[in-house]
Amino acid sequence: MSRTPLTREETTTALAALSGWALSEDHKSIRKDFKFRDFNAAFAFMTRIALLAEKLDHHPEWFNVYNKVEITLTTHSAKGLTALDMRMAQLANEYAG
Ligand SMILES: C[C@H](O)[C@H](O)[C@H]1CNC2=NC(N)=NC(=O)C2=N1
């Protein structure tokens, strides 16, 4: 999947289909706060994301406290958003159920 930066228009279009993901002020990342039943559910979700991250060679910035997982996605090499961030966001939504 391409690490080419998305245009503003591509970003807006992609985000419209991604429930709960918000664009940062500098438009270089997207973020969503997930909440689960308990730590076990949160960590199961994180495990699936971790395996996905290795498969895509694309890794999240995240923070976990008990049943909450805050995820920020950006592509460092592109210094902004790419299709990889959108793909990971989409699958995170699916994994969260
Ligand atoms: C060497 C390796 O392919 C790169 O460092 C990958 C790994 N994971 C990555 N993850 C993210 N989020 N952005 C990157 O640019 C990136 N680059």
Automatic annotation (TrEMBL):
GO terms for biological process: tetrahydrobiopterin biosynthetic process. Keywords: Lyase. Transmembrane segments: none annotated. InterPro entries: PCD_sf, Pterin_deHydtase. Its EC number is 4.2.1.96. Pfam families: Pterin_4a. It catalyses: (4aS,6R)-4a-hydroxy-L-erythro-5,6,7,8-tetrahydrobiopterin = (6R)-L-erythro-6,7-dihydrobiopterin + H2O. GO terms for molecular function: 4-alpha-hydroxytetrahydrobiopterin dehydratase activity. Belongs to the pterin-4-alpha-carbinolamine dehydratase family. This is 4a-hydroxytetrahydrobiopterin dehydratase. It comes from Panagrolaimus superbus.
